[in-house]
Amino acid sequence: MKQLLLAAAIFAMAACNNTNNQNNNADSTSMGGDSSTATAATSDTGWTPLFNGSSLSNWHIYGKSAPDSTWRVDSNAIHLVPAKGEGGDLVSNDVYGNFDLKLQWKISKGGNSGILFYVQEDTSKYKETYFTGPEMQVLDNNGHPDAKIIKHRAGDLYDLITSKPETVKPVGEWNDVEIRSQDSTLTLWLNGTQVVTTKLWDDNWKKMVAGSKFKKWPDFGTFNEGHIALQNHGNEVWFRNIEIKKL
After folding, report:
1. 8-42 pLDDT, tens per residue?
2. Which DSSP helix (H) or strand (E) runs through 207?
3. Could you tell me the pTM of the whole model?
């Protein structure tokens, strides 16, 4: 009788261990699957760096094949050091349609620059990037005379829409920018605050352009694909942490 009871106990223990092993294996498989899925979702964000902190390989001077010495890499930032008679706007090698662009900028005292998009690089037709590409203004609001002109201040959609509210930081401090263009809706953020939103290419857009300095260039603001450009306005400016997502 004792032998029968001992055998039954051994059998029950073996069955219990086998069940626990199966549950442990199932838990391990489940955790591995969840972890892999989470990692893939986190890493597959769609963002592409346009500047990695060390190389200008994704950029060139407008109308040329490469950057020049006026645009330099300095402390993990793109630094414009203006030189008389040299340089031009720095333009992305690739073109973008629907996009989300993020970057940081800081400006020198009394400085002026800009971030342009939908730029067409046909220099036989368009001498400058701003003949075709709208611009988010980069400016020292306290030191540059352009700040006295409405729609020419930092964060504005230059000469078209005034940014509200004004959230620009003082000279020497980094400003966070996001520019998103998706399905004809353009939205600009400065330092985490939405400052401009508008529809592109509709009748109201055409009316705004017709009332601006850009009316002399008939192709301005008519394209839904083009290059990103960083403006050389003859003043020192810095850009860093530049990344873009195609939408």
Report:
1. 444 444 444 444 444 333 333 333 333 322 323 33
2. helix 203-210
3. 0.82
